[in-house]
Structures are given as structure tokens and as C-alpha cells.
């Protein structure tokens, strides 16, 4: 979906396909047929943006077979879909029964991460619509915090610098300008936007910036205005923003609140949980750990890294951090000029919701994704952006 900002520029809105597990190119093509095109039709749109997730095997197949890449582009056009952004965070296995810490491997100190992201950039340069010259890719925020020493930090810095050089060369070759955004996430080396300032300033290349995920921002109790102002002051480019909401518990000491939270403690994804105390931010790696005894202080609200549907906050006594999303979006695109032109709804946890909240059929998932995009569209038009055909 495209929107005209009052300054005349185009803002793109997509939804991320990592909600539909697929490891191979055939799986990606099935996603387009079974999920993405039905969402477009449900919205009554001639064109729908998708933030494509390509696992390692799918990306490799595309970059080594020009005919397969041409075939994917043709399929996108045939189904009324367009791609200006990729989700390059998960490497493979995102649809596995247990993902947890695996999603952070390989990290930016490992050669495989550079190779995969280079493949993604080469693919995206060929998938961009004819009238679009700028693309974006979100990626792992360097590494999970453990086992990340100075040697690995140096290797990651070198890899990202190499990537920037490759993106410059790709621009020269194709005329397509691609940028990479480190996506701060709780528990990682770069957990907050503040953590991103030093490494991104050190790299000092405008092709390497940040992806602001509003669920992660809220989970770490970052104020969106303060965070975005700091990025602007440091001249760190906001490559894209993922529109998402975290799980919020106002009174985690109450038994009924803990019981409600326990329903979201599931075995597939990691749900880092945080609370803001007088001594600073405290947290656990997973929701179950927070709920076990006194691992996390419960005198103040808890927030858990669980991407809940934007249009349907959890029932009381829980809620979502949707207000943080709205505040961030206002700052991102509500001013005289957009701070980013790429927005992506990223609720990948539909099938990890408590059983009574999960879509029971493909059509229900289609309806849910369409409802999230409708809400995002309404937020954008309320900010003065005009939806384009």
C-alpha cells in the first residue's frame, strides 16, 4: 500500500510474510497464492505491499538462478503484490516448533550472515517495482548478548562495513539504492535505540542504519519521542519501522494477572520480559522465567516481547503497547518530512497466541492481517497522508 505524504514523497506500508512459514522458493510462491493475494483481495486493493521473508535456501535459490528470480517477480506482479522491503532477521527455521535463541544465529560475527544478507540485497534490487529505486532490509542487531566479545564485535563491524561497500557497488550496477537496518531487540547486544548509536556511528555509512520495531521499543520501556530524537541528532538513518505491539501487564503482582500472562508463555518463540524500576531496567530472557517465583520485580508494570495483533488488544487484565506504536508513528511520518518511508506490520505470532485467540482457518488469518493493515492505514490517513491507488 502506498501513501502520499504532505511533502510529496511516497510512504510504503506492507505486512511481513514471516507469519507464513516457508523455507524454500516453492514455499514462498505458495505464500503469495494462499495468503498474500487473499489479503489483498480482502482489502479490496489492486496492489498490496509485502515485507518478504526469504530463508537462506530460498534466497540462495533466487540469487543463483536468474530465471527463478524473474519468475518470482512475474508472480508478484500477477498477484498484485509489490516488495520494497525484506525481513532479513531470521536466517532459517522460523517456522520450527521451537525457535527461541536459534533466531539469533548466525550473528554478524559469522560469515554466513554477511553472505545471506548480500544475497538478500541482490534479490531485492531485482524485485523492486520499476518506479521504485530505494529498498530496505531489516537485520539482526549484531548478536545475542552472550558470547559476544571484542573479537566478535570487530568481526561484526568489518562485515557490516563490507556490506556497505557491496551495497554501493550494487547501486552503481543497478541504480537501486538499498539500505540495511539493525533491529534493536531485548536481550541482544543492541537492545535499545540508544545501544545502536555507538556501533552505527562507528560504521558511519548511510547505507547502514536502524529498523525501529515498536514492540521492541515498548518492551524496553523506551519513550518513542526521546528515542527518535536521539537517532536524528546522531544522524542515524531510520531505514524502516516495523509496526508492532507488545504485551503489557499493569499489575503483575496480582494472581489473576500472572494467570493471564501464563497463557502467553508458549514454547516456540522467546518472549523477553522487562520492567522499569527505580534502579533501571530489569528483565528475563523469557516470560516463563519471569513468572517463576521472584525472578523479576513485580511492583511496576511488565512488558513482554510478544507481538500481539494491532487491532485486538488482549482481554483485561492485560493490554498491549499500542499507544507506543501510535506515538512512534506520529513522530515517524506525522511531521513535515517522514523519518522513514518504509513501514511494515509484523505480527508473526498469530499461531503462538493462546488457543482461543488463534485463527482456526486460513480465512481467519487473512481477515486478521487485513484488519491490522486497515488500522495502520487509518492511522496514516489521520496523520494527513493520502492513500494511493
Overall 3D form: globular
Strand fraction: 15-25%
Compute the number of strand runs: 15
Give the oligomeric state of the chains in this entry, treating copies of one chain as homo and distinct chains as hetero. single chain
What is the averaged pLDDT score?
97
The total count of helices amounts to 12
What is the rounded Rg?
Answer: 20 Å
Task: Give the % helix.
Answer: 40-55%
What is the straight-line distance between the termini? 8 Å
Strand line-up in the sheet with most strands: 2-3-4-5-6-7-8-14
- Helical/strand content category: alpha/beta
- The helix/strand series, from N terminus to C terminus, equals EEHEHHEHEHEHEHHEEHEEHEEHEHE
Low-confidence stretches: none
Biggest beta sheet attributes: 8 strands, parallel, barrel
Walk me through this protein's architecture.
The radius of gyration is 20 Å and the shape is globular. The chain contains 12 helices and 15 strands. The model has no long low-confidence stretch (mean pLDDT 97). It is of the alpha/beta class. Helix 1 crosses helix 2.
Element layout with pairings:
Blueprint: E1 2-4, E2 10-16, H1 25-43, E3 48-52, H2 56-64, H3 66-78, E4 81-87, H4 111-127, E5 134-139, H5 150-174, E6 177-182, H6 193-203, E7 208-213, H7 214-219, H8 224-233, E8 238-243, E9 245-249, H9 255-262, E10 273-277, E11 280-284, H10 287-291, E12 302-308, E13 318-320, H11 322-333, E14 342-345, H12 362-382, E15 386-387
Parallel strand pairs: 2-3, 2-14, 3-4, 4-5, 5-6, 6-7, 7-8, 8-14
Antiparallel strand pairs: 1-2, 1-15, 9-12, 9-13, 10-11, 10-12
Helix pairs in contact: 1-2, 1-12, 2-3, 2-4, 4-5
Amino acid at each position: 500500500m502506498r501513501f502520499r505524504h504532505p511533502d510529496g514523497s511516497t510512504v510504503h506500508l506492507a505486512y511481513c510474510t514471516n507469519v507464513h512459514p516457508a523455507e524454500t522458493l516453492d514455499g514462498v510462491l505458495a505464500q503469495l497464492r494462499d495468503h498474500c493475494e487473499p489479503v489483498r483481495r480482502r482489502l479490496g486493493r489492486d496492489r498490496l505491499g509485502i515485507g518478504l521473508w526469504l530463508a537462506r535456501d530460498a534466497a540462495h535459490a533466487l540469487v543463483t538462478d536468474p530465471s527463478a528470480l524473474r519468475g518470482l517477480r512475474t508472480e508478484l506482479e500477477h498477484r498484485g503484490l509489490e516488495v520494497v522491503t525484506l525481513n532479513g532477521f531470521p536466517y532459517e527455521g522460523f517456522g520450527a516448533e521451537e525457535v527461541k535463541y536459534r533466531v539469533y544465529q548466525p550473528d554478524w560475527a559469522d560469515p554466513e550472515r554477511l553472505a545471506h544478507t548480500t544475497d538478500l540485497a541482490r534479490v531485492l534490487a531485482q524485485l523492486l517495482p520499476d518506479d521504485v529505486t530505494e529498498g530496505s532490509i531489516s537485520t539482526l542487531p549484531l548478536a545475542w548478548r552472550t558470547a559476544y566479545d571484542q573479537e566478535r564485535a570487530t568481526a561484526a563491524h568489518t562485515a557490516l562495513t563490507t556490506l556497505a561497500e557491496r551495497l554501493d557497488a550494487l547501486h552503481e550496477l543497478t541504480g537501486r539504492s538499498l539500505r540495511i537496518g539493525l533491529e534493536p531487540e531485548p536481550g541482544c547486544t543492541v537492545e535499545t535505540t540508544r545501544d545502536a548509536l555507538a556501533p552505527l556511528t562507528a560504521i558511519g555509512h548511510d547505507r547502514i542504519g536502524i529498523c525501529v520495531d515498536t514492540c521492541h521499543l515498548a518492551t524496553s520501556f523506551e519513550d518513542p519521542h526521546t528515542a527518535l530524537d536521539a537517532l536524528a541528532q546522531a544522524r542515524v538513518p531510520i531505514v524502516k519501522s516495523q509496526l508492532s505491539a507488545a504485551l503489557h501487564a499493569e499489575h503483575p503482582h496480582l494472581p489473576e494477572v500472572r494467570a493471564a500472562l501464563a497463557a502467553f508463555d508458549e514454547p516456540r518463540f522467546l518472549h523477553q520480559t522487562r520492567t522499569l524500576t527505580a534502579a533501571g531496567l530489569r528483565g528475563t530472557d523469557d516470560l516463563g522465567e519471569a513468572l517463576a517465583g521472584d525472578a523479576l520485580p513485580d511492583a511496576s508494570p511488565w512488558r513482554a516481547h510478544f507481538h500481539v495483533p494491532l487491532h485486538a488488544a488482549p482481554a483485561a487484565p492485560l493490554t498491549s503497547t499500542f499507544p507506543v506504536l501510535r506515538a512512534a508513528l506520529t513522530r515517524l511520518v506525522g511531521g513535515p518530512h517522514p523519518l522513514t518511508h518504509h513501514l511494515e506490520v509484523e505480527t508473526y505470532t498469530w499461531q503462538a497466541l493462546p488457543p482461543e485467540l488463534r485463527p482456526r482457518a486460513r480465512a481467519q488469518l487473512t481477515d486478521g492481517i487485513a484488519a491490522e493493515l486497515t488500522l495502520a492505514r487509518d492511522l496514516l490517513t489521520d496523520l494527513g497522508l493520502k492513500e494511493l491507488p
